[in-house]
Amino acid sequence: MNIVFVLFDNVTQLDFAGPVQFLSRLPGSTVQIVSKDGKAVTTDCGFSIVPNASFADCRPADIICVPGGHGVRQAVGDAAIVDFVRQQGAQAKWVTSVCTGAFILGVAGLLQDKQATCHWAYTQLLPMVGATHKAARVVRDGNVVTAGGVTSGIDFALELIALIAGEDVARTLQLALEYDPAPPFQGGTPETTSPDVLHNLRARVYDRAAEQMEEALRDSGMVG
Hints:
By secondary structure, the protein is of the alpha/beta class. The protein is built from seven helices and eleven strands. The protein has helices at residues 13-23, 72-75, 79-91, 101-107, 152-165, 167-176, 195-219, and strands at residues 2-6, 30-35, 41-42, 48-49, 53-54, 63-66, 94-98, 115-116, 132-133, 138-141, 144-147.
């Protein structure tokens, strides 16, 4: 089973690092980390990731996963990235994304008439790419599996492992990697966060970020 992660500049590294840590342990799997030219891509943490393949070198994906990040705004307008995701996704057994990576799937036509999710600050934009938002941390619609923001990529990976290899394998990997979340504070979702914290974060970051994502989707020429 070939698992392909599609990377691009200014990717959120945990969108990628969380699921790849789990999915790479799926029995019988290989992992290809690809960028357009096979060269290093920047992350939003100030370091780079070196892929092990380019688009041209990539074998057909059984699982394709697209992470998110602010770099999605540029990626949705990059024909090479969108075409690669479209071609690989058309024949993959599983088409997946984490966070705003959903919008790359969307402009590639892979979310049309699907239920999906993404980071909470952008869910209102999913109809622009033909999807219907479903309020859940991980959403499966047929062979398309989308995860919410950042850390939900681990939950998505475990759910996918259970679907492919069985719950015992997923439970074993969850134990091996000691995935037992116990956040020190309540408030990892808009519903559980104080209104002041939510308002301040939206005003400081996400109101403008969502506007920029909407502009990028319209500018891509691939959405209505």
